[in-house]
């Protein structure tokens, strides 16, 4: 899959650290608002989000918490490379990203006598992710807490704490990477939304490692849409309110739980890929970050805004100096 929206991301538009380390509050990032009906953009601050919503609207957030999913793997002979855990399949089986070439059946050493064995690529076409068994002497959560670090990419110039990679909604550990659309929210901004009559509901979707840089389709991810969240979505739409997903992960989860044209309680693995050809059923708007050039998530955004409007929005964001990546600015399509 290749997204139709293509652009070059200059270094000046990359968020290289957290807003807090840039002298801002967590909720001090910028907000680009794309009005789909009016086919226009408006520059705003994230704290102004309630002004663009209506009393009776519903925000749906992802309460998945980020794991310290980066480990150091050691080959026999002393060579080492980073190993990024992506998805816990069950038992000792994970989907993982070795940040170096590996062979089927190869075993590498981890800390404390633990080890990882690479079984086979998840996808024969894209061999970046591997089915991997972990042999560790303690529960995975405790092992990662002791030996893991948050996954960090080249544009983040300093090691950050796990707390920097958590949203205020984080409750259920399981994501390899932060559901970053929710990062700007603070207690203050949530209070402002409640006073404006905007409700909040939670779902869970555990995100895997980023695959969009290479135009790969999203992989299967585990999700849970609980009954209260499904009921809130349906009640909101019944009374004429709008359901706004905070992040593409929320869109994927909610749209995976559609039954009979409504949201339903559901959990399990989803391989749903939302594109302009797949109609969005229960989500009316989207709050998201700015996605990479050629990212497959851009196809999901095209399902909301269409290709021409999204191209214009991204061109405006680049020219206006909006910041990309997990610590950058956010984009409301409504």
Task: Write up what this structure looks like.
The structure is a single chain. The chain has 6 helices and 19 strands. By secondary structure, the protein is α/β, with parallel strands linked by helices. The chain folds into 2 domains: 11-66 and 160-333, QueA-like, CATH 3.40.1780; 70-147, Thrombin, subunit H (Beta Barrel), CATH 2.40.10. Strands 2-1-19-18-14-3-12-13-17 form a 9-stranded mixed β-sheet, covered by helices on one side. A 6-stranded antiparallel β-sheet has the order 5-6-7-10-9-8, with no helix packed on it. Strands 4-11 form a two-stranded parallel sheet.
- What is the C-alpha radius of gyration, as a whole number of Å? 20 Å
What would the CATH topology of the largest domain be? QueA-like
Q: How many domain modules?
A: 2
CATH superfamily of the largest domain: QueA-like
Helicity, in percent? Answer: 10-25%
In terms of per-residue confidence, which ranges show pLDDT below 50 for 5 or more consecutive residues?
none
Mind sketching the topology for me?
Blueprint: E1 30-35, E2 40-45, E3 58-62, E4 64-66, E5 70-74, E6 80-90, E7 93-98, E8 107-109, E9 115-121, E10 130-135, H1 140-147, E11 172-175, H2 187-195, E12 199-205, E13 221-225, H3 227-238, E14 243-246, H4 248-256, E15 258-259, E16 262-263, E17 266-270, E18 285-289, H5 297-305, H6 307-319, E19 330-333
Parallel strand pairs: 1-19, 3-12, 3-14, 4-11, 14-18
Antiparallel strand pairs: 1-2, 5-6, 6-7, 7-10, 8-9, 9-10, 12-13, 13-17, 15-16, 18-19
Helix pairs in contact: 5-6
